[in-house]
Amino acid sequence: MTAKVRYDDVEVGTEVPLREFRVDRAHLVRYAGASGDFNPIHWNEKFAKDVGLPDVIAHGMFTMAEAARVVTDWTGDPGALVEYGVRFTKPVVVPNDDKGAVIEIGAKVAAKLDDEARTVRLDITATSGGQKVLGRARAVVRLA
Prior knowledge:
Elements: E1 15-23, H1 25-35, H2 45-50, H3 60-75, E2 81-88, E3 101-114, E4 119-128, E5 131-132, E6 134-142
Antiparallel strand pairs: 1-3, 2-6, 3-4, 4-5, 4-6
């Protein structure tokens, strides 16, 4: 595959559309099974509260994966992702109700890095419950 977004069509400040992802306890159970991360802070409310958390929290890597998905969906090619990194700043608290939590993720072109390689750096924003859940979230992508 090749990225569908063209390097020549983006400028610093070009925005990747904001997307929302709902996460509930069932998502966490499925993610635990897929990842092998069965830490009880992700499924056991009593345990999570006993260790000082407000409630069960989403896996950090789940949140990180959703942010990467926003980037790769925007480019149209998962192979366009050259570099990716985040810092976990706040947990995504997932209450035991019918609503769960919402993670809002967007990004903006922060720099055009290399005209020859056609790479840009995206600064990613990720929030849940009005709080920033990922810090220094950045991706470098190679565009068409």
